[in-house]
Fold this sequence. Notes:
The complex is a heterodimer. Chain A is α+β, with helices and mostly antiparallel strands. Helix content of chain A is about 30%, strand content about 25%. Chain A contains 19 helices and 30 strands. A seven-stranded mixed beta sheet of chain A has the order 3-7-1-14-11-12-13, sandwiched between helices. In chain A, strands 9-17-16-15-10 form a five-stranded mixed beta sheet. In chain A, strands 18-26-27-30 form a four-stranded mixed beta sheet, sandwiched between helices. Chain B is of the alpha+beta class. Chain B has two domains: about 5-80, Ubiquitin-like (UB roll), CATH 3.10.20.30; about 90-155, [2Fe-2S]-binding domain (DNA polymerase, domain 1). Helix content of chain B is about 30%, strand content about 15%. Chain B has a five-stranded mixed beta sheet with strand order 2-1-5-3-4, with helices on both faces. In chain B, β3 and β4 form a beta hairpin. The longest helix of chain B is centred in the C-terminal third of the chain and has 15 residues, at about 145-155. The radius of gyration of chain B is 15 Å and the shape is globular.
Amino acid sequence: MSDLLYVGKNIPRTIEVDKVTGRAIYIDDLKRPGMLYGKILYSNYAHARIKMINTSKAEKLPGVRAVLTGSNIPDVRVGFLKDQTVLKKDIVRQFRDEVAAVAAISEEIAEEALDLIEVEYEELPAVFDPIEAMKEGATLVHEVDARGKPIKSNIIPMPWKFKAGDIEQGRKDSAYMVKDNLSTTWVNQCCMGTSGCVAEFDMNNNLTLYNQTNVPFLDKQRIMEHFAAIGLKGKNVRVVNVVVGGSFGTKLDTDIYEFICIQLALKTRKPVKILFTREEEFRALPPRQPARFTIEQGCDKEGRLTFRKAEAILDNGAYTSWGVTTPSVMMMPMSSLYRVTNVSFESTCVYTNNIYCQAMRGYGNPQATFAVETSMDRLAEKAGIDPAEFRLINCNQSGDVTPMRLKITSCGLEECINSVKKRLNWSEKKRKQKSRGVGMASLIHVAGGARVYLSDGHGMMIKVDQNGHIDVLESGTDQGQGSPTVISQIVAESLGFRPEDISLTLGDTGLCLWDAGTHASRHTFMAGNAAIRVCEKAKKQILEMAVEQMPKLIKNGFKRKKRKDPDFVEPDLDYSLISSPEKLDIKNRMVFPTTAPDHPYFKVEVSQILRSGLHVGIGESKVVVAEAFYDPPTEMLDREMKGNLSLTYAFGTTGVEVEVDEKTGKVKILNLFAAHDVGKAINPTLVKGQIYGAAYIGAGYALTEEIKLEKGRVMNPNFRDYKMLTARDAVPVEPIVIEPGDKDGPYGAKGIGEPGLVPTAPAIANAVYDAIGIRIRDLPITPEKVLAALKEKKQQQ
Amino acid sequence: MKNVSVSFTLNGDIVTAEVPPNWTLLKTLREYFELTGSKEGCGVGECGACTVIIDGDAINSCIYPILEVEGKSVTTIEGVASEDGTLHPLQKAFLENNGVQCGFCTSGMIMSSKALLDHNPDPTEDEIRASIAGNLCRCTGYVQIVESIEKAAEMIKEGK
Lengths: 797, 160
């Protein structure tokens, strides 16, 4: 692979030049003729009965085109467990409950109209603590389920249970054991572009929805199902992605505002835009799923893990989005990070009157890895083994099949641990510094697709026009990761063209083939594999055309030369060199015989062949167009939650050195090395970008970020009070990119979108412990918590 | 509300806007002039996505009243590349060094760093970080943004 021209190179993101010139069209910038602006009225209570809604004043406001409540739209349930309606008409169960919506000719008028809507509530008792909510006799968040059956408990009937081996035997085999309670809290995805969409119906009631989803076909499917329920069965839905200002998990579900926007567009027969303010983004968008863990582990005298038992309690909030499925991903580190045969993991998801939760980069993995890696450190200490050594003793290896039946085909974990150890100067620093410490944590994540649905497929179409320009159509989406550059590198390499010859159309269900979505770090792996396959087909077509057209083009060239120069003698050429497609290849747009790549006559620019092939005559003219559908040979999880759901897995280790100011409690990150087995970096600069960005979010998760909820209300819905790290925080992230190559990855690549975030927080927590001997078990590790713990430690001494 | 007339220099051209007096500069840029490169990420001056340059200084246009703009000179992201389409070194450097990911903060980042380089062609890393401390980014961890600004400063010095 040493002669690769584009794969493995730092190709600039020139294809996205619109983003640096202010020309890229985000949802904020999209305007359709006659477009109206939609706004949503939210609940004033965490739990209340709606006694009355009066919209008459709002309806009379000039410029208002529609006012909707739960009473004048179809009473239909939506969402992952169909546990809510689009607008709530009887009971509100959280502060973000949508009770009314307005469409008006301007945002200002729509806002004014919201102020004119009168709602009377009768407050009901509410429950905000999942442990309280689980108790018998607790206030019920829901009275009935999606089928109308009475509900007796707040516990969601979706227990995630995983068992392998024998925990009791594991205990017996243990020389050392530890048990810990740990928790992680709500954090907001903080996309810089806020949420929004534009819904537009044609006169046949077919919908075009311009939005930011990263699952266009699933989005379409959900809306089609909704259509069937509201009397629009069989009407088409076209989902079109605009330029997306970040996703980090927020674009996985079809959110309530999208259903509201659709209803407003249907009612007004006009295109309608809903665009969130930053405050709405904090108050009305489902954040990362918080979790409380109890985790036990044991090891034998040699430090080999004997068992791992964990339980998780998840505060679901009032309704159900993807948060409820995060245990499916928690199971991966719980069962498969390091070698352990006796495993048990159980999670319980509980309704409360808090804000409801969904996905965020890493899904449940950052939460669960915080638990596993804290426990690993504690167990290493108890066993008297260096934590890095302890991890190496239990390290996953290529060829392993884990208790979850994940098949580890390639694994660079050992190299990741060792390189972080070396860069941190681990042996010299561990336990040897005052107020400074080092810590590490590792990760496993899907990196070769994730069979969450029966199809984990990715469809790609490619057309090559007569000028040699390539259009790639695929329903992956780019939320900033740089897929247009990466896919154009793979297509250019595979087809023998240049990246600048390629345009991409992403995320349009009207033009593209099915894709399961740009989630689970799957896009480069899936689209890359589809690209290799589609290019193989297109290349075959071009080369077949070349076999027909090249002799003709070469001979015509000779004729032209002869006309100019009568003395020219046509050389005697061996045309058998170019007599079949197998004998030809394309590189940098030149078609040539593989046995004579520098042949003075048999080297033809591809557009000449394409033009010649197009203009042959009736029945003979050809265009180049191909499609491929790549669906990897993986398994869905079975009833026991086992199965090889990804074709390969990512591994990585983050090593951190921190300094803790014992006067202020502030933790400063002095070094952060993030070593990742990426298989092969298609574009090393872009790979590093994924690692930098993910590590930064991870550092915020560890130290500063939390949505503060007070009795269900978000108290810090702005960037002043919600502490995202800034450029001034200057976390010194250094990526270490390890490229062992993966046999199933496109050019050897694995997914790297999420991994960088996953081990960051536990690595920092472990380093804080090394620095001051204090273990903060509840994220984030704020100065207040550090000071309180230091004080308590002093009192005990 | 009766419109007011505000005249100023916008990306080198003398312009007049007829807008309600309570509009911000950002709203005027986006709605009146249809220059949508400057973004609203928060609307209250906390994220920097709306940054433009006014008389040499990087300013949050989302909280800048339009009435204050009278007679001033405003540069937005749309005015950064040359008229012939040649990119500014900052724009080139952001593309080459992955200083742009989702791109929503990019306009503001480029405007803040342009204001810096216009005053200080040879900034230290700390000065660069201070200049973009008011520009939030969720994708990059800022590392490659800082690198992009450093590379752009080099390009400008070398006359590229």
